[in-house]
Write a structure and sequence with these properties.
mainly alpha; Growth Hormone, Chain: A; transmembrane helix
Length: about 475
Amino acid sequence: MLKSLVSIFKPEADDSRPVSSDYEPVSIGDEAQETSLVRVEDRGGKGVYFCFWVLGAGVLLSWNALICTMPLLASYFPEDSPTKASLASWLSTAFCLGNLFFLGSAQRSVGKSSPSPRLHHSLILLFLSSLFITFPTLPILLPILPASLMLPFLLFLTVVLSLATAWLQCAVFALAALWGSQEMLAVMSGQGGIAILVSLVQVGLAVISALHGAASGDEDYSDSQSTLAGIGLWALGSAGAFGCMIAHRWLMRHPDYRIVLAPLTMRGAGLMTGEDGEEQALGKQHGEGATRRLLRKNAALNLAVAYVFVVTLAVFPPVTASITSVQDPPPRLLRPDVFIPLHFLIFNIGDYVGRTYLPAIPALIFTSQPIVLVLSLSRTLFIPLLLICNTPNTNSPIINSDTLFFLIILFFGITNGYIGSLAMILAPSPALNPRVAEEEKDVAGSLAAFCLVAGLAVGSLCSFGVGALVH
């Protein structure tokens, strides 16, 4: 049993040597390309899809745990602290800027080396950092930490999480792009699925705490339950990172794993041997100019996926978490300690539907880059809609209905998941996006992921300005 656990943390040899001539998946010739395409159709399966779903969930696991515990983290600050109201913007900005910086550094090696070692080491860092937040940070350190040190300490932990997430995200999207469009969809679906799971845990604990507090009138019980909920979420994060290690090891033992990584091997061979002009050209395609070339090819798609998350992060959660029930006084299950987690859950359900089910409908797969960009830009309308809900500085909100607010949040989530996934699926797919060559898939996929994170970073910075309008 112990040996089995240790083997999960021990990196497995990444055997990505060229495959046998039976398949010849990467060659400079039409016949070999046809063989490769036939083999690609047989490459997927439920096991592969599920593993990429788990890895996609792991990419956003720490982010979802962080945003769901932001109200708890803010409660550790004194009431008169100016950081208390803006903590969500501080942490989301630190996470997204750190993620952007580390992802940019990781992007340089995409297409030149196997993503597996980076994936494994990032999962170990994610596991250890989540475990540290679970214990002793939440139950022991934060309650006794001086207020002057609390923000730097939380920012440091956030940057560590952003490092692990960035390197994991880069590796997962590169590997999924090499494997196929269904696996890319699995990654996007997993990101939405883990958000629902985290929100369900949070809402369940909030409802239990609210009902018990109403029955006993014990406010201390509510505080202790909030702490336990936070510990539970980060313990879930540790377990999720461990599950991702198992999924990655399963993929490495898949019979087609070496076939998937064969393009990387051929690029390296072309650069090292330089036996003929074609091989040298193959290697040069993945030099420093590859990123600039793909940025031009997928300019509209990359802008679309970035802007989706600029709009989302500008208001979610800094603004949406400040909106409360319009009922005065609100019933016990609509007070802020339940209302706020409930809006997280509704958004995440919509996001999951948009990521998983809408891109699976052929009629909703728009392959025109300008159309995808227009869809992304149209989400700007959600910002004024949310600002006229029951925000703190509003005495008589224009949208004076909790049901209507939850419907807006639902469609906000659906459009976030659908348009974001659509752009991410199109960007690295030669079948849906003829501008991208077969050997550019992994670079195009990780570049789209970089633009996604850039959108998160810009949206987090915008949240300071938008949040100032409601506080």
